[in-house]
Amino acid sequence: MKICVVGLGYIGLPTALLFANSQNIVLGVDTNTRIVDTLNKGELPFDEPSLLELFQNAKNNFTASSSVESSDVYVIAVPTPLENGMKLADLNAVKNASESIAKVIKEGQLVILESTVPPGTSENIVIPILRKNMNKYFYYAHCPERAIPGKTLHEMVCNDRIIGGLDVKSAKKTKQLYSSFVKGNIYITNTKTAEFVKLMENTFRDINIALANEFSLMAEELGIDVWKAIEIANKHPRVDILKPGPGVGGHCLAVDPLFLAEKSSRSRIVTLAREINDSMPGYVVKLVKDMLKDIEHPTITLLGLAYKGNVDDTRESPSFKIKKIAESEGMTVKLYDPFIRDFPGNHQTIHDAVKDTDCIVLVTDHEVFKDIEPKSLQVRNKNLIDTRNILNHHVWRDAGYHVKILGVGLI
Ligand code: SAJ
Q: What is the pLDDT of residue 109?
């Protein structure tokens, strides 16, 4: 099969390489020429476990390009962010990808949309664009990605998949194609249900994180340690409370529930959960202000720019919201994240990042932060706020730090 994968980001590139490693000839297409050039030079544009090995194995079957070519199969894996300033899906990248496929598609070829979209997008937007220049039959399916950054390849291979086919023939053809690398079960439904299922999954997680965040605020008010309370509650066979934190980042959970709210007038808990999770960065700044109330124009250091631990992905990261709110309160904010290569203002060493700081705020749960030796740090004032409860607080207290943990009320 000749497969053209449009969009070479966190989902498109691993998908393209998995197809290339399953004896297909793959053309990866991206409008970003930097990504295309990087790949054609034999380098990866981002890090992800096992991706390099897959890339090296795929070499003869994979090429990157800026333009779509006629192929047996087209996979659309482009981003679907929110429109600037509005809580609505920005489908421009999906529309552009569909337009470029429409120019080259021939009868009997298959188009698969992997990008997460509001229910009805396949029927109302993508398929009409593809049909614009051609009245002949083509196959179509929505096959939403379900892999989690940090474990993308493992999950792409092992997780179950959903295929929403335009018709039975399209669904079967898509299932056959994905069976070349998917070891999980593949479930078949229609396009709109598949779109809805994907959004339900991410909304379920967002709401459960909002619940954990609300519990953490309640625990602080009531003088309880939420982390210990959650650990005990989770001993119940049907309870699995998630972890509180500084807010929800990434381009999925912080965005996808709004695609449901956009299409349905019935959204209540979905919208409320978004509000709760979005309020957490402001709450973290409130904790900083309480801790530093006697210091005028303090300097603080945020540990972590990535939206979650052990990845280099900064999309929708709570760190940026914390930084912005803290600066609007007159604080100077310094940044340190060893996973992020060239981010403006990101310090190269923790020692530079904490020099002259009044408070260290752990935002991202990178494993490497557990190895920090507080005694080796030269700070102005010894204050620590741990929003993920991952540090060894005894060691920090022994080094003279005043420690505050999100979700732990004063007993
Ligand atoms: N988070 C918490 N507490 C938790 C778990 C997560 O605060 O207990 C935060 C994280 O720190 C992060 C955010 O939530 O800021 C999202 O992280 P995540 O690891 O929960 O999820 P994503 O956004 O990286 O990936 C999600 C996954 N969806 C589900 O688990 C239902 C993944 O399977 C999807 O493929 C991905 O969205 C996507 O692309 O849609």
A: 98
What average pLDDT is seen over the chain? 97
* pLDDT bracket for residue 85 (50, 70, 90): confident
**160 C-beta neighbours (distance < 10 Å), count:** 11
Q: Is the pTM of this model over 0.85?
A: yes
Let me know: does 82 contact 90? Beta carbons within 8 Å: yes
Catalytic residue numbers, as ranges: 198, 252
Encoded amino acid at 218, one letter = M
CA distance 106 to 112: 15
Torsion from C-alpha of 196, 200, 201, 206, nearest 10 degrees:
140
> For residues 342 and 183, what is the distance between their CA atoms, to the nearest angstrom?
37
Note the pLDDT tens digit of each residue in 178-211. 999 999 999 999 999 999 999 999 999 999 999 9
Position of tokens 């179509």? 140
Residue nearest to atom 10 of ligand 1 (CA): 308
Most ligand 1 atoms within 8 A of CB, residue of 13, 153, 308 to mutate: 308
- Tell which one of 117, 197, 211, 248 to mutate to probe ligand 1, the residue whose CB is within 8 A of the most ligand atoms: 248
Atom 28 of ligand 1, residue of closest alpha carbon? 202
366 within ligand 1 shell (Cβ under 6 A): no
Distance from Cα 264 to the centre of ligand 1, integer Å:
23
3-state secondary structure of 64: strand
Q: Which amino acid is at 258?
A: L
Note the pLDDT tens digit of each residue in 5-44. 999 999 999 999 999 999 999 999 999 999 999 999 999 9
**Percent of the chain's residues with pLDDT above 70:** 100
The answer to whether the beta carbons of residues 328 and 321 sit under 8 Å apart is no
Instruction: State how far the Cα of 146 lies from the Cα of 124, in Å rounded to an integer.
Output: 23
